[in-house]
Every structure is written in C-alpha cells, then in structure tokens.
C-alpha cells in the first residue's frame, strides 16, 4: 500500500516522493553506496557503476527507494497477484541476470543513468525470479523511475521472464492493478475541480452550496490503490506550483493525505496491521533525500556524499518536538 508522486518546481526541477506501507515492522536506515561497491544480492552479485543514496533496511545493502549520482530516482512498490516471476534457472538459461522482486531498484540505480537506459537495459539484461529475496521470499513488486529530464517510467514484471514498460505522463504511482488500468480509470474523474460550486435556484427553492471544497466532491478517500492513484493525481494537479525551496515541503503535504494510522487497515487471519512506516522525498538535482517515519514526524535529511564503502545512517525514530521560543 504505497503511493508515489513526482512534482516540478517553478524552475522546472524534478522532485519525487513516496509513502511506504507494510504489514511487518522493519528497521530502516539511510544508505549510501559508492561507485565500485559490491552488491551481494540474494541471487546475483554485481558491482555498482553509479553511487546512490536511499532508504534501506538496517544491515542490508539494498534500497527500497533512492536517487543516484546521475539524478535517476526510483522506488519499489507492492504488486500483488499480477507479478509473473520465473525460476532463477530459467532466467539464467536466457542469458539474463536473476533478481528478487525487491532488489530491482537497487540494480537499476547502480547500473543506469536515466529512464531511457532503464528502458533499454531491463528487457535485455535482467528478469525477476521467484527465488531468493531479502526477507526469505521474492516479494511481488513493480517499479517507477524519474530522472532529470522530467521523464517518468513504469516497469512491471507482468510477463514471465520479462516486463511491460510504460511512460508515466501523470507522475503518479500506486499498486495493483497494472499502471495502464489506473490511467484509464482517471477518465471517471475528469469532472473534479478546484473551484467551489455555487448555490443555485431550482424552482422556487434556493439550494445553497454544500461547502468549501465541493469541486472535489466524489474524489475517493479510501486506501485502495485505485482510490489513492486518483486522489494523488488530482491533489498534486491542483496544488499550487512552488519554487525549489518549497518543493520537498509540497511533496510531504500531498502525501500526508495517504498516511495510514496503525489499526485502520488490518489484513489476513493473523490480523497484520498495514501502516505508513515512512514517507520519503527526493531532490533529484541535488541528490538529497528527506524522510519522516511513523513515530517521528520531524523531517530528516541526507545528501549523497563520497564514501569509501557502503555506509548506513541512522533514522531517528523517537519523536522530536521543538520547544517554542519567545518572539
């Protein structure tokens, strides 16, 4: 249950952000991977051609989302029921590199400079395997990328041993079903507006307006992927465009609409709780990452810097509250 958006400043610079929901408590950390670092993936080892920064699980040299030194940004999102993975042996027999579902974004940031190189390399070089996985299984995932050109690309492993690839002109991303379905579904909501509808006279009756914000009446408010895609698309579409210094702030304002408190979404017989574990935002131009976590709403920041080996950085989870000062 994740939601991703891209926004552009008035200067034309790209920014990207996402919420990360899961039904398992994970310990997250910032991670910087240098050029030439060894990535010990669960199925295939390789070396990084690009340095990158992102959100990792503590002790694991893999990112859930991140940005590299060329300004390519991307994230991994849950893609249940539609992913079509194949065994490692089948992938290697085709002369490709086998990756577990959650490892693909790390591979892309380590190997590609922009979305066009992602498009070119994925069909030729890699496939997602049903084997392996950082958590003991290859998670059902699909992926979105954004680069400095402003282009966004969706990569979905919905074909056994291969991918379906889409340009993403709306700059929004969630979960299943497939991306093209979500874009078509927007046709049902083209009547949404940022304008307040005025009252009108019907017969002899004066019918008053239902209130502020009624131009968005009918926008879906639940947490299904279909509803979140629509809501994210129109919230960022109607939001005022801002300058660079306010762009990250805008991402957090929009994504706050998708924050899931613990206990609101419960799944399965074991009553697993889905909640928003973190929200991240990326400045692609300056290769900087911003994040707040469930228990600490203070935004924490990390910039891509030169390191000699893979380096993890602490994300403070205890709430930080600033004391007011006298004016």
UniProtKB/TrEMBL annotation:
<feature type="domain" description="Choloylglycine hydrolase/NAAA C-terminal">
    <location>
        <begin position="2"/>
        <end position="306"/>
    </location>
</feature>
<dbReference type="Pfam" id="PF02275">
    <property type="entry name" value="CBAH"/>
</dbReference>
<comment type="similarity">
    <text>Belongs to the peptidase C59 family.</text>
</comment>
<dbReference type="InterPro" id="IPR052193">
    <property type="entry name" value="Peptidase_C59"/>
</dbReference>
<dbReference type="InterPro" id="IPR029132">
    <property type="entry name" value="CBAH/NAAA_C"/>
</dbReference>
<protein>
    <recommendedName>
        <fullName>Choloylglycine hydrolase/NAAA C-terminal domain-containing protein</fullName>
    </recommendedName>
</protein>
<dbReference type="InterPro" id="IPR029055">
    <property type="entry name" value="Ntn_hydrolases_N"/>
</dbReference>
<keyword id="KW-0378">Hydrolase</keyword>
């Amino acid at each position: 249950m994740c939601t991703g958006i891209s926004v552009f400043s008035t200067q034309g610079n790209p920014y990207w952000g996402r919420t990360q929901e899961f039904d398992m408590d994970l310990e997250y950390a910032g991670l910087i991977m240098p050029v030439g670092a060894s990535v010990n993936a669960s199925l295939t080892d390789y070396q990084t051609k690009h340095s990158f920064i992102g959100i990792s699980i503590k002790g694991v040299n893999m990112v859930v989302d991140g940005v590299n030194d060329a300004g390519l940004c991307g994230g991994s999102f849950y893609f249940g029921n539609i992913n079509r993975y194949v065994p490692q042996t089948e992938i290697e027999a085709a002369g490709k590199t086998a990756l577990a579902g959650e490892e693909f974004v790390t591979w892309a940031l380590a190997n590609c400079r922009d979305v066009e190189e992602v498009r070119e390399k994925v069909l030729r070089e890699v496939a997602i395997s049903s084997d392996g996985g950082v958590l003991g299984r290859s998670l059902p995932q699909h992926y979105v990328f954004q680069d400095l050109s402003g282009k966004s690309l969706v990569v979905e492993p919905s074909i056994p041993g291969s991918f379906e690839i889409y340009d993403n002109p709306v700059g929004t991303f969630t979960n299943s079903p497939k991306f093209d379905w979500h874009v078509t579904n927007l046709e049902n909501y083209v009547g949404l507006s940022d304008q307040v509808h005025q009252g009108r006279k019907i017969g002899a009756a004066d019918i008053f307006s239902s209130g502020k914000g009624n131009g968005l009446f009918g926008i879906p408010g639940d947490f299904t992927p279909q509803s979140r895609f629509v809501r994210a698309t129109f919230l960022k579409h109607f939001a005022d465009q801002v300058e660079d210094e306010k762009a990250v702030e805008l991402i957090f304002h929009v994504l706050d609409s998708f924050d899931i408190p613990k206990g609101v979404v419960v799944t399965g017989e074991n009553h697993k709780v889905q909640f928003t574990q973190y929200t991240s935002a990326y400045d692609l131009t300056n290769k900087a990452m911003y994040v707040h976590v469930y228990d600490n709403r203070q935004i924490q920041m990390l910039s891509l810097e030169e390191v000699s080996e893979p380096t993890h950085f602490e994300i403070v989870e205890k709430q930080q509250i600033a004391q007011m000062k006298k004016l």
